[in-house]
Amino acid sequence: MGRMSRRAFALTALSTLVTAPGTAAMGADPGLGEAAGGAGPGPGEAGGGGGPAPATPAGGAAGPDGATAPGPDRPSRAATEMRGVWIATVANRDWPSRPGRTAAEQRKELIAHLDRAVRHRLNTVILQVRPTADALWPSPHEPWSEYLTGTQGKNPGWDPLGTAVTEAHARGLALHAWFNPYRIANHAEPTRLSAGHPARKHPDWVVPYGGRLYYNPGLPEVRAFVQRAMLDAVARYPVDAVHFDDYFYPYPVAGQTFDDDDAYDRHGGAFPNRAAWRRDNIDTLVRETAAGVARVRPGTLFGVSPFGVWRNATTDARGSDTRAGVETYDDLYADTRTWVRKHWIDYLVPQLYWHIGNAAADYAALVAWWAEVAKGTKTHLYVGEALYRAGAAGQPSAWQDPVELSRHLTLAAGYPQVRGHVFFAAKDLAADPAGAMARVVADHYRGPAKPPR
Fold first, then answer.
1. Which residues constitute the signal peptide according to the record (predicted)?
2. Helical spans, DSSP H, in 297-414
């Protein structure tokens, strides 16, 4: 099938999606973010603590470079493993370096990020293309992102997503398109949105909370709209995956209430309580998005990078041995464990942004817990790594050690379910103040690898 006919097919398929909210079928066999609402994958500290790195887990012996060698129950995976990096655009966190740069300057910066990924022997970039209910492509549904030009809705004079896909593929990199479903703005002023913004046309869709604006996940018409907006990019471009971060319902803000009373009154009658209804809203978004991606562009993957703690064991016996202040099941209404167990998504990248031995959320304990969750499922498990903490001022002493991040990969290599790692984020890959990423490459990425499919 020719390129134009393929695109026409995809756009035609997209036009038939989500016409009856809540009725989409489940997908085949079936959020990056600071706790206060930051740039994307990067939750706040779960707590302090520290301690020595544990011994290498069973399943492989430590090799001469500190990496775990393949054992009898662990085949070599050097040729296929996820080696990814997030490129955050919200608030110009990673790229573009600032709004208002020329198209040529923005393109040059983007190419530099891609080339750097190749030099570090990575194989995947996860580019944030819908950071705040906007677009880094010519979307018919939402305005151009303000992070390109400084003015929301202003045409930047080029197609960033289209260019990113082409240039990534030319370098042998997979391109995952990263979308935030419900965040509208990192401010609470609807009048600051572009004149034609859907949130201004439909103020009843909007919930102000914590000094920000969000679409209400409890409204079927909202869920239908955000899927159309996101899947437009999938129809237009041969992206390798659709990627969500950790933002579903927003992180809790002390003393504030997310006001979805009206939506709950209208749509929550079949549920025992509001929490169960909210979780069903997010489950439905995930299932419908999986089905939509498969329909619009078959073969495209769908993955999520949630906050790293599903539930503490003190809350639920099935939970992890952690004492995190946020639990995705209870606070973000994202039942990430179920998504893995039921294969509603193709891959999961829990944000395990704590050091080995952290008292509240030990990296070692969480890797073991997620590996057990993924065991026997078809969902691929990758680990989100806090490159941004390595060598950063104010971080615990463990993060000042350039070997900490390499130890993470050594430890995770003892679990066959862990099929790779994704690093947050691109500007930290460039800076690498402690040399932590250089150590990872030297210890673990001595040759190229393809991402799992």
1. 1-24
2. 336-341, 363-374, 397-400, 404-412
